[in-house]
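Here is an idea for our session: we take a single protein and study its fold together. Which protein we use is up to you, so please pick one and set it down. Once you have written the record down, we can walk along the chain together:
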Amino acid sequence: MDEKTANKKSNLKLILILTFVVVILGGIVYFAIKENDRPSYSFADEEEMYGIGTYREYLEQNQDDRLNYFTLKIYDAFYYSIYDENGDYKEDGLKSGESTIYLADYLSTSDLSEVEDYIAVATSGALSALTFDNPELFWLSFENMAIYMTSSGFAYISMDERNNPTDFYAEWYSNEFQIDYAILQLRQAREEVYSQLNTAYPDGANDYQKVMFFNDYLVDNVEYDLTVETDGTGEGLPFVHTAYGALVNGLAVCDGYSYAVKYLLDGQEITNLVGAGYMIQNGQPGGHMWSYVYLYDNWYGLDVTWNDPTFSEESFAGLPYTEEQKEQFKEEYTNLHRHDYLLLGGNLESGTGFYDEERIPQNYIYYFDNGSSYYQFPIPKISETDFVYPSIRNVRILENSDGTVQLSVDCTGLKENYVFAIAKSTDGVIYGEFTPCEQSIIFTNVEDSGYYKIRLQTAEGEVLCEYNDAVTVTVTSSSEEASINLQNDIIITKEEMLVA
């Protein structure tokens, strides 16, 4: 510890030791709560949060609230003690073993005179937001962290451990080189997933396909570590609560799955957030984490943990299955249920959807103050209905009295920013576009004859789906000679979708 810090230490007042924060930040899968201590299951406030993909962005856009303001400042104090302005690791940052963060570098003099009223809750919220937003920070630990303030209002955060300075490393790391290697492993694992994605979609995947691919990859390649649930041990410890555990070791629990989802989606610039709350099993609450994904102008819920069924020997107790039959059953059952919680809405009025009796979104981040206080983030206001992949439906041909032909497409349930495009099959040139609910394009003269494809795309031009069977349109001056080679009422489900 430097002399400056040592001199101030005699005047320090210890106001909070955030050991309890570690439990929440770690995303422990199940924690015991006595029946008379069960929390109330009110939903955290729902926010539209369009375009917000991190909790820091939420804090930045809501700084009028003083708690949010101080939470943001402390978030940045940690973030910029790790990263530089370009998002690269700093050579002299926390990863190198630095053990003290001086809040005076991030707060004005007037802020420092006010911060004591907010610092405990704001620090808890800031560390939670930092962890939720940055899955690559799996090597950070706050177990021995303390916040100090001097009599003059000077504030700093230090790794103290009974007045013996230490670092912010998780206990299984002892130096920066180990952390660098682990980060490299995690990044390589993500690149391998992206490589497989590109192989599966050589012409490029749209955002929906990426979400589904990452879900399926994690279901197929990550095993839920049941031993953590039963006795707190397990082969995957201590990494099962991290993206590293899921993507590198292939073992995780709910928070490990959720951080892996965020890490994969962030790398593809798909807006998403980690969600936290409770799950109810056998009438008892336990901590749980999942994901929120923003797709085509709506938020949806995604729970990869629940999409990945777990099996133990007790699952087959009393059943005359051979080992081969067990494995076949596991594979078939997993394939059947891998999309049960893929991009679900939350129809609260009917009691169905992503918010139900078993999953209670809270996003409460508790700090240790007689167990009664918390910092609460909002949850995204998700669509009331499940995500349905936009499809080309009910293509109809209408012959006009003047001999021209209209091509009409059902736009039921589609947003106005979706665009149907009619493209020539020979060269892909767009003949015309129409948006819901304009519904149709009129072929007006003989030059419009030919083979066409129907595409559905976003207003920005991203192709969502394409009907690849060419539409034959022949238009002449005589209505009797107009002909269309296309069956009516075409229904294409998302499983059958052919994407350009």
Residues 176-200 form the longest helix (25 residues). The radius of gyration is 27 Å.
